[in-house]
Amino acid sequence: KLSVIVNHNRIYFYLLHLDDYNRCPTTRPFRCPGRRTICISIQYLCDGAPDCPDGYDENSKLCTAAKRPPVEETANFLQTLLANHGPNYLEKLFGSKARDALAPLGGVEKVAVALSESDTIEDFGKILNLMRSDLEHLRHVFMAVETGDLSMLRALGFRDSELADVKLFLDKLVSTGFMN
């Protein structure tokens, strides 16, 4: 059964059966955390007005992640680079802590989550405990990509066949305020 409540000109849907506890209708796929199942439309995420009882739908990490490529896409992108170039390849991008398939940084998944949730490159560096020199190197890579200078990516060993994908991925991060 579905219960509907209108509050602040927004419609909230409460699923009442236990077997429906974790499911939300496709038209309101975002489930607020908590015991009670509250489902909201994606359009209400990060709109400046809290719709979840705890305001989770306005959480800054959630809102940053909503603008970024999904964690799965980011993890697949990083994993593909590692598979094509070897486990220490991303050391050229993220610094010496990125050895052994990003293991010292917590692995591909942790790096992917940090790229998705970090408001800025500074936050990203703090989450992964990057050395200042590695963070500055990463900043230079992003700035080169932002200005269209792909020579730095070539110098890092990216193949010409990969340049467009790498540039597109890094541009997505830049366009969501990662460099601010």
Automatic annotation (TrEMBL):
Transmembrane helix among keywords: no
CDD domains: LDLa
Keywords, sorted A to Z: Disulfide bond
SUPFAM superfamilies registered for this protein in UniProt: LDL receptor-like module
SMART domains: LDLa (SM00192)
PANTHER family: PROHORMONE-4 (PTHR20967)
Designated name of the protein: IDLSRF-like peptide
Organism: Limulus polyphemus (Atlantic horseshoe crab)
